[in-house]
Amino acid sequence: RIRLKFTLTALIAVCVFFGFLTFYSAYFNKVTDCGCFGDAITFTPWESFVKDLILLFGLLLLWFMYRNQFQLLQPKKQTKYIALSVFVLAMGLITLHGILHEPLIDFRDYKIGTDLNTEKANIEKNPSEYKTFYSLKNGNTGETVELNQDLYVADKKYWEEGSPWKIEEEKTTSKIVKQGYKSEISKFKPESVDGMDLTPEILKANKAILIF
Questions:
Q1: Is pLDDT above 90 for 80?
Q2: What is the DSSP letter of 197?
Q3: What is the DSSP secondary structure assignment for residue 170, as one 8-state letter?
Q4: Residues 78 and 84 sit within 8 Å (Cβ to Cβ)
Q5: Is pLDDT at 26 greater than 90 in this prediction?
Q6: Residue 42 carries which DSSP code?
Q7: Confidence label for 199 from pLDDT (cuts 50, 70 and 90)
Q8: Which helix (H) or strand (E) holds 134?
Q9: What is the domain range of residue 186?
Q10: Least packed by Cβ within 10 Å: which of 12, 114, 165, 170?
Q11: Does the pLDDT at position 177 exceed 80?
Q12: Both 122 and 190 in a single domain?
């Protein structure tokens, strides 16, 4: 309970600020991953917004529980400084270890011990599926619709000769419809200076040293 009133006030302010930020980001689709927990847990902006609301609710609950006891709950000075020193030292050592070596728990795709061949095989066995979505506008009525490629092909009124429906090319998009095995290793495709794909050669080698 070190500086309980100040700590709760600061955390409530932080939650309000990030609650606004994540809502803005989610509503206007500014980013796709909040980045709060790095590679350990991927949150969409909406999930992160809900997380901020839950944390804010918990902090407000603590505030109302202890609002009349802040002065009574202050720990002894000696205990306060010992606790602070231990926490700061622990955080510093963990951070320093991560910078100089590797994280204590590594959630990254390319962490030591990852089998790139296995990851590549998993990606090939369970690929993500994408579909093209067309925005069509009726030249007679001005009505617009959005259809995926299957529905577009299935209904010939949209593409038969003389049809008033025209594709708005600038609004055509590709969207994911099934998330497959997700890994950054799908992007592992080293090439030589002249553009030759070196991936198979590197993955089959007994030992490879890559210099970028």
A1: no
A2: B
A3: G
A4: no
A5: no
A6: -
A7: very high
A8: strand 129-138
A9: 109-126+179-212
A10: 170
A11: yes
A12: yes
Phi and psi at residue 31, to the nearest 5°: -135, 160
H-type helices in 145-195, by residue range? 149-154
In a domain, 99, yes or no: no
The answer to whether residue 199 is domain-embedded is yes
Query: Cβ(132)–Cβ(172) under 8 Å?
Result: yes
Full DSSP string of 63-123: HHHHTTTTTTTPPPHHHHHHHHHHHHHHHHHHHHHHHHS--SS--STT-TT--HHHHHHHH
pLDDT grade for 73, boundaries at 50, 70 and 90: low
> Is 81 part of any domain?
no
For the stretch 123-126, contacts whose Cβ atoms lie closer than 8 Å and that sit 24 or more positions apart, written own/partner, are 123/180, 123/181, 123/183, 123/185, 123/186, 125/181, 126/180, 126/181
- Measured between alpha carbons, how far is 158 from 136 in angstroms, rounded to an integer? 8
Whole-number pLDDT of residue 90: 96
Residue located via tokens 């009525």: 141
Scan for tokens 């302010």, then name that residue: 13
The mean pLDDT value for 46-64 works out to 94
Q: If you average pLDDT over residues 125-147, what whole number do you get?
A: 91
Q: Verify that 201 and 163 share a domain, yes or no.
A: no
d(CA 152, CA 132): 10
- Rounded Cα distance between 145 and 165, Å, is 9
- Residue 114: left (phi > 0), alpha (psi -120 to 50), or beta? beta
| 167 and 201 belong to one structural domain | no
| pLDDT score for 96 | 96
Phi (first) and psi of residue 153, to 5 degrees: -70, -35
- Do 184 and 122 share a structural domain? yes
